[in-house]
């Protein structure tokens, strides 16, 4: 085994310097800013952890936190179920599979701004195609701009539609990597399709499932563009999520220290969640070799 030499360190150093420049230094500055009271035209004034106390005592923060938890759990697990179902369906065989895969992956080729504009038009309560269809069927329309529950539901649907290709491609690749010999042996032993799924498919796909859930948790936790472009947190800040709350504090209320504190609270929550999932992945993938 070759030793890590000074030449190897010199080759890695530019990447490390770039990471420090674009990630660690800004993160340190934001943490310092979170310990100060700051706004436009105002010199930062040291307040310690007062910004964190103010954020954690703000009812709008907890409303945004609750909305974020609701959106995350709906988006991640519904998307996981759909992605796993579609992946298994495609492995089982569908007509024109290449075309169907391209259709499933198509939302990833659309920018989030274009997607939100398209969905806003389709779901418009007066002229939207979906609203007119619901009215023709005698069903109530989705008042997503007025009713908070409708707004959050539409945000979830839009986010699932946009990011389902990511979950699908991970799970589809994991399913294709399962050796066919295992299924042949299971059939010889008289296993039913459900038993094949429980005893062969699911255990071998657990690492990929955990990875997809981990990434989707992190992405959904910082969801911003779908909410901001669709409802801007309204009506009356009832559909705000944490990223929108941070944006509002920084650029509408000019409370830079408070928004920086919100950002660091989000970082800590994301790291704790990631560590838990990485531990689960480690246990699944490497514990058996210990």
Describe the secondary structure blueprint for this structure:
Layout: H1 6-34, E1 36-39, E2 42-46, H2 50-56, H3 59-92, H4 97-105, H5 112-122, H6 129-136, H7 148-176, H8 180-188, H9 193-221, H10 225-230, H11 242-251, H12 256-286
Antiparallel strand pairs: 1-2
Helix pairs in contact: 1-12, 2-12, 3-7, 3-9, 7-9, 9-12, 11-12
Number of domains: 1
Strand content: under 5%
Number of distinct helices: 12
The first-level CATH class is given as Mainly Alpha
Instruction: Specify the helix fraction band.
Output: over 70%
User: Spans of 5+ residues with little confidence (pLDDT < 50)?
Assistant: none
Question: What is the chain-wise order of helices and strands?
Answer: HEEHHHHHHHHHHH
Report the C-alpha radius of gyration, rounded: 23 Å
Terminal Cα span: 22 Å
Secondary structure: number of strands? 2
Return the CATH architecture: Orthogonal Bundle
Strand order in the largest sheet: 1-2
The CATH H-level homologous superfamily: MetI-like
Overall geometry comes to: globular
Sketch the major β-sheet. 2 strands, antiparallel
Overall residue-averaged pLDDT value: 85
CATH-defined fold name? MetI-like fold
Class by alpha and beta content: mainly alpha
